[in-house]
Known about the structure:
By secondary structure, this protein is of the alpha+beta class. Among the domains are: 2-102, no CATH class; 104-235, DNA methylase specificity domains (Adenine-n6-DNA-methyltransferase TaqI, Chain A, domain 2, Alpha-Beta Complex), CATH 3.90.220.20. 32% of the residues lie in helices and 21% in strands. The chain is built from 13 helices and 30 strands. It has a four-stranded antiparallel beta sheet with strand order 5-12-9-10, with helices on one face. The chain has a four-stranded mixed beta sheet with strand order 6-8-7-11, with no helix packed on it. It has a four-stranded antiparallel beta sheet with strand order 20-29-26-27. Strand 23 and strand 24 form a beta hairpin. It is elongated.
Amino acid sequence: MSDKIERIIDALRKKILESAIRGELVPQNPEDEPASKLLERIAEERERLIRERKIKKPKSTSRIFRRDGHFYESINGGEATCIDDDIPFETPDSWEWCRLTSVCSFLSRGKSPKYSETEKKYPVFAQKCNLKEGGVSLEKARFLDPKTIEKWQEAYKLQSGDILINSTGTGTVCRTRVFNESCLGHYPFTVPDSHVTVVRTFNAINSFFIFSFVESVETQKYLEENLSGSTNQKELYIGVLENLLIPIPPAKEQENIVNEIASLFEKLETISISRRYYKRILSETPTSLRQQLIQAAIQGQLVPQNPNDEPATVLLERIAQERTTKLGKKAAKSMSRIERRGSKTHATYHEIFSDGSEKDISDEIPFDLPENWVWCRLEQVGEAYIGLTYSPSDVREKGTAVLRANNIQNGKISYDDVLHVEMKIPDRAYINQGDLLICARNGSKNLVGKTAIVERNGDAYGAFMAKFISVSNRYLYYFFSSRLFREQLDDANTTTIYQVTQSMLKKLLCPIPPAEEQVCICNRLGLLLKTLNN
C-alpha cells in the first residue's frame, strides 16, 4: 500500500511539472508584461555585458518569433525558417519560445581539476554532489590544488540559483539540481568539474522555472534521447543544452508558477514523509504504535477539544442520578467522586467520600487531562458481574452457548470454539449486544484482562462482564486495551494468581471525556487502527 502511495505521489509531481511548463498550473494575467518584452530586455542586457567584457559573446544567437500562426527562427540575424515541427507543445499567447542559451549569462561545463589531498579549502563540485535524493551537498567533494586557482575564472565559481546538470555517466547523467551557497559552510567558493554543466540565467529569468522545465518528464526524455557516447559512458554535450527549446512565461507568471510548484511539492512531501514514517514504525513495532494511539486517545490528545461540548463532570452528575434511580440512594451514595483543584499547571486531585471525608490522591493520578475531562473510579459509571458457573456435566453438544476466555480474540468474540450447556441459566448471565466481556481469571497474565465487545444478544457468559451507564462501551473497550488499565491491574495483583476481581475493577482510575468527544475519539481511533491492520 505504501509503495503504491509513493508511486502516486511521484506521478503527481510529474503532472505538476508538466502543467507548469505548459502554462496550465496558474491562471494567466492579461495585464502581465508579455514574455516577448522580457526577452528583448535580456538581449539588450547581453549586448551591454559583452561590450563591458563581463561575459563572452556567444558562438551564435537565435531569435524565435510567431508570424501568421507559425513559429520562425532567425540565426545570427539571417533569414528566418519555419520551425513548427520543432515546437514540442502549445503555450499561452503571452509566452515565448527560445533556445536555452538565449537566457543564459553563463552556460558551460566545468573544468578538469587538479586535486589536493592535503589542502581542503576549495571544494570541487562533482556529480555525486548532486544528491540522488534531492538537493546539493559538498560532504563528499574532493578539493582543488590551491596552486591552480588562477585557472578558474570568476564565472566558474558557483552562485545561488545556478542550475547544475550532470553531463556524464549512465545512471546519473541529466540529473539536475539548483545550487545554493548555504551549502558552502566555511568554504570560500566551489567550482564544477568537467562532468557537471552550469546553467546560469540572467536575473530577469527565474532559474527555478528553468530548473522545473529541465526536470520535467518531456525534457528529461529529450535529453536522454540526445546523449552521445557508449552505453557505459553516456555524455550530454553542451550543444544539446545550448539548443534546447524552452518556453518562457511573463516574469510575474514565472514567479507564480515557481511558488505554486513549491507549495504543491511541500504538501506531497508531507504525505510522503508521513507514509515513510508510518511504514517504518509499522514494520518495526506495530503493537507499540497501536498502544501509542490508544494512549493518546485516553489522554485527550487524539482529537481536538470542543469548548462547546458538555463537560464530563455534568455527564457524571447525570450518571449519578441514573444510578440513584436504579440502585437507590443508599447504594449510590456509597461511591466516591474525584475533584480537581488548583490551576491547570498546578492541579491537585482529591477523592471525596460519601461521609464527607476526602483524600489527596494526586500521587495516584498518572497524567493530566483536558479541562473538560474528569477522572473517576469505574464503579461510578458501571457495574461488574461474575460469569456463569457450570460443571463438566452441564456441557452438551447443543444448548445455550457459553463464552469463555478463549472466545475473546483481538477485541472480538470468536464463535469457533464455543461450549454449550444444558442447565438453568439466571437472567443476569445472559449478555446483550454492546456489553463488555473481560477475561477475569485464567492463570495467564496474557489472557487475564482481555476484553471484547459483544456483537449479538442471547449468549450466556462464563467470563466476567461489565455494564456501563451513559459512557461509550467502545471508549471503555479502548481504556481496557490501554497501558493505563494494564499498569493498574499489575499493581492490584498481589497474589500468586493473576486475576481481575469485582473489587479491583470498581477501584480502577479511568479518564472520562465529554460524551460528544467519546464518539469522536472512537471514530478516529477506529479508522487509525483499521489502517494499521491493512
